Amino acid sequence: IVFNATPTIKLIHSLSNLTFLIMTNKEIYMFCKDHQDSRM
């Protein structure tokens, strides 16, 4: 059971990391966009 569960845990971990990176990039993008708008 442990052997079968390990790939699933790794997959979930990878997906959560990917989601975190996407959300972080989106926040950085929005921050830069707001910063550019305020300078103009």
**What Rg, in angstroms, do the CA atoms define?**
17 Å
Task: Please work out how many helical segments DSSP would assign.
Answer: 1
- Quick one: how many beta strands? 0
End-to-end distance, in Å? 59 Å
Q: How much helicity do the residues have?
A: over 70%
Approximately what portion of the residues adopt beta-strand conformation?
under 5%
SSE pattern, N- to C-terminal = H
By secondary-structure content and strand pairing, the structural class works out as mainly alpha
Mean pLDDT: 84
Oligomer: single chain
- Overall form: rod-shaped
Largest sheet: none
- Name the poorly predicted regions: none
Helix-strand layout with pairing:
Blueprint: H1 2-39
Would you kindly provide a brief summary of this structure?
The chain is mainly alpha-helical. Helices cover about 95% and strands about 0% of the residues. The longest helix has about 40 residues.
Q: Can you offer a commentary on this structure?
A:
- The structure is a single chain.
- With 40 residues, the protein is mostly helical.
- It is built from one helix and no strands.
